[in-house]
Design brief:
about 130 residues, mainly alpha, 3 helices
């Protein structure tokens, strides 16, 4: 809201920070939706939304940073990042091994879907 002289009640930074926060939240929500979707078309739609929103969030962040509206936290040490990356890779590997072990032992008892995959009634690219 502008004052009679054309200035804002709040500094631009205070107006833009909630938008950046909302973009971060949307990425988390879209990522969750993509990982929980069972329909390939819905999963693809949320994957595209995640990618597009991440890109927009990055552009928005860079704009705010260039205008000195955002102070980034301290930089992470390469050692710490590499350690976290290695732990994540090990976790993914263990998960894959567990899935393979559990599904291979199921044999004839493995669950088969009881419905046919269905076509989407809305084009995945129509969200933008």
């Amino acid at each position: 809201m502008a004052t009679p002289n054309g200035s804002s009640f709040l500094p631009e930074e205070d107006l833009l920070s909630p938008i950046l926060g909302e973009l971060k939240r949307a990425v988390r929500e879209y990522t969750t939706a993509a990982t929980e979707a069972t329909c390939p078309d819905v999963r693809q739609m949320f994957t595209h939304l995640t990618t597009d929103t991440l890109s927009l969030q990055g552009e928005f962040f860079n704009m705010m940073k260039q205008q000195n509206m955002y102070t980034a936290g301290t930089h992470a040490l390469k050692y710490d990042v590499d350690k976290q990356h290695k732990q994540a890779q090990q976790s993914v590997q263990k998960t894959r091994e567990t899935i393979n072990q559990k599904t291979s032992s199921m044999g004839a008892y493995a669950h088969n879907p009881n419905v046919e995959p269905h076509a989407t009634n809305v084009s995945p690219a129509s969200y933008m």
